[in-house]
Amino acid sequence: MEGRQAVRELLLAGTRRTREVILAGDLDPAPILDDIIDLADEHKVTIREVARSKFESMARTEAPQGVVAFAAPLEDHGLEALLTSSGPAGRPPFLLLLDGVTDPGNLGAILRSAECAGVTGVVLPRHRAVRVTAMAAKSAAGAIEHLRLATVSGLPKAMTRLTQVGIWSVGLDIGGLDPIHDLTVADGPVALVMGAEGAGLSRLVRERCDTLAHIPLRGVLASMNVSAAAAVALFEVSRRREQHA
Q1: Which of 71, 100, 129 is the last residue of a domain?
Q2: For 169, how many CA atoms within 13 A lie in the half-sphere containing its CB?
Q3: Which pLDDT score, from 0 to 100, does residue 244 have?
Q4: Are residues 110 and 221 in the same domain?
Q5: 64: CATH
Q6: Residue-range definition of the domain harbouring residue 179
Q7: Using an 8 Å Cβ cutoff, are 45 and 19 in contact?
């Protein structure tokens, strides 16, 4: 884990064991660094300060902000755990399925939006897609510590299972018939399906969607970045769910 916000959320969540926190030795004082040090001390996590040159050799992202943490792997909750109601109010599932996103920065940004929008679970394909790397985790700014993630061998098979339990799959596609703002199924068990950068939804995934929706565009450009499109769609679904809460 790299980046101040990501490491702070890792320690704050406490959902997985953190082995060590590494700080670059030339950092200026900052409140978030004080938080990281206090949280690490509270959880009895070793804190080590190293020279900048050594720190840079350890980092895997371009801008780790002088903070790196080593922690246990993220828990894979499995698809079945995501199919039931969650939270104290027993809200119906609000899932996000990602079909072949390959850029770790996009993945992290999407996961950050998903957590903020109240998504109850994220389904990722095991193949032909980026994993939750250090770069993705940094872009997610700690969101991965608060999301339930499940990795599956193939999204089409997973979507068949969603249909069996009554979760409606909505694919976001420029050719979708309905505007995302008119989506009438958002208040029930729903899964938003996002395609890959450029290519969009794969053929089999598109065929397994119960409906396709689009984001109305008013400018000259014909498409949006996948992480921006995901944010728009996720918060629109979230808004409609709140209206029917």
Answers
A1: 71
A2: 28
A3: 66
A4: yes
A5: 3.30.1330.30
A6: 79-243
A7: yes
User: What is the tens place of the pLDDT at every residue in 161-173?
Assistant: 999 999 999 999 9
What's the DSSP call for residue 218?
A: -
- Beta-bridged to residue 136, according to DSSP, are none
72-to-17, 108, 186 alpha-carbon distances in Å: 5, 19, 35
Torsion of CA 225, 69, 118, 133, to 10 degrees: 40
The pTM of the whole model exceeds 0.85: yes
Residue 224 has pLDDT above 80, yes or no: yes
111, containing H or E segment: helix 104-117
Q: Which two tokens stand for residue 116?
A: 């903020």
Overall number of domains in the chain? 2
Pair (169, 56) in one structural domain: no
Residue partners of 201: CB distance under 8 A and separation at least 6: 99, 171, 172, 173, 193, 195, 209
Last residue of a domain, one of 14, 41, 71: 71
Answer whether residue 145 shows pLDDT above 80.
yes
Question: Who's near 72: CB < 8 A, 6+ residues apart?
Answer: 16, 17, 18, 19
- Residues in CB range of 192: below 8 A, 6 or more apart: 95, 96, 97, 170, 172, 230, 233, 234, 237
What distances in angstroms separate CA 145 from CA 26, 42, 138, 242, one per listed residue? 28, 18, 12, 24
Mean pLDDT over the full length of the chain:
92
Exposure pattern of 149-173 as b/e (b: 16+ CB <10 Å)? bbbbeebbebbeebeeeebbbbbbb
What pLDDT, on the 0 to 100 scale, is given for residue 89?
60
At residue 216, the pLDDT reads 92
What is the per-residue pLDDT for 86?
66
